[in-house]
Amino acid sequence: MAEEFVADAMLGKLAKWLRMMGYDTVYQSRYPPGLISSLLREGRILLTRNTRQDRRGERVVFILSDHVGEQLGQLRTEGHIGVNRAMWFTRCIICNRLLREASSEEARESVPDYIFVRHPSGLRFCPCCRRFFWPGSHKQKIIARLEAWGFREK
Length: 154
Known about the structure:
Blueprint: E1 5-7, H1 12-20, E2 25-27, H2 35-41, E3 45-48, E4 60-62, H3 68-77, E5 100-101, H4 104-107, H5 113-118, E6 124-125, E7 132-133, H6 137-148
Parallel strand pairs: 1-2, 1-3, 3-4
Antiparallel strand pairs: 5-6, 6-7
């Protein structure tokens, strides 16, 4: 089973990349009192850059770098994430929900016409925030970046 994370307010970019890689990652720019503790009780791992935060006895990863590629590398080195391309692009990068396949009929009014010509399959839909996603050039750029950071399946 893949790890589940909660990223503190300083790690929004890391949270987005973890979601692109398919990892369940809760992130908010502000957390109400007690929410992080509640999420940790659910078994999530806290990702933080705040070294002054006292979280003894809880699962915490202190992220050392402020560069997302190095942050992902640290999580891989410490055994929290791996390379599973089947998981990539399965979560909404906005709200963290699992995406579902979408038919072209349901996407017709929300997606530009040229998308249906260039990418007739591979449409995904977030049932929470109601956004559509498709495998455009940005997907190839993301894959190239992940591979440059060492996330290649062997």
